[in-house]
Amino acid sequence: GSLKGPSRAKTGFIFSPRGKRVSSFAFRFFPLSLFHLFNRSNFGVFSGAILGGLLLSLTFGAPSLVFGETESYEVFAKEVIDGDTTRLSDGTLVRYLGIDSPERRRRAGERWIYDPQPFAEEAAALNRELVEGKKIRLEVESRERSDRFGRVLAYVFVGEVFVNEKILEKGLAKRYRPSPQSKYFFSFKRAEEAAMEGRRGVWSQ
Q: Does 121 participate in catalysis according to the annotation?
């Protein structure tokens, strides 16, 4: 359960308010792409001017749209709690960021009782197969490091397997509080849509 790292990586594009540094990629690429887009699609000069103005507004004057900085740690997964929670060897609880699997227990007064929702055990079994007893890598977003229960919020990887995404793909979780600012927003969206189309897991009912 010892933490190794962190290693940090800034991801995504930054559209800064006026006076702040602006991504050179955004500044150079988008105007050129805009020209080709409207040159080919025949929307006309007027439409191009409107879109161009909107683009400049987003680039220089809009509220920032940032994919946050992340930190990575290598840890040891001791015990799976359910489909989206794991206990590390040092006792730390990790809640998988961006997904929500069916619950195995519910609170009754001061106690927790076993009362699994549909597919709760399947989700826990998949999570157990993926991580229990293995070295895993946690990727934590600097903007959201823990929840109100003190659990670490993380994207979880075992080798090349992205555990959060895999559980979504199998239909054993749904996206939780999706935000375009999240690093894996689009990959999670695709995984959930694939599960829905395939009527897998929770989407089969």
A: no
H helical segments located in 14-169: 24-41, 44-60, 120-131, 163-169
Task: Please tell me which of 64-68, 138-142, 158-162 the model is most confident about, judged by mean pLDDT.
Answer: 158-162
Contacts of 127 (CB under 8 A, 6+ apart): 80, 82, 83, 84, 86, 101, 163, 167
The answer to whether the peptide bond before residue 6 is cis (omega within 30 degrees of 0) is yes
Q: Which two tokens stand for residue 137?
A: 């890598």
Distance between CA atoms of residues 16 and 23, nearest Å: 8
What's the pTM value of the predicted model, to 2 decimals? 0.68
Q: Which among 87, 105, 151, 190 is annotated as catalytic? A: 151
| pLDDT per position as a tens digit, 149-186 | 999 999 999 999 999 999 999 999 999 988 888 889 99
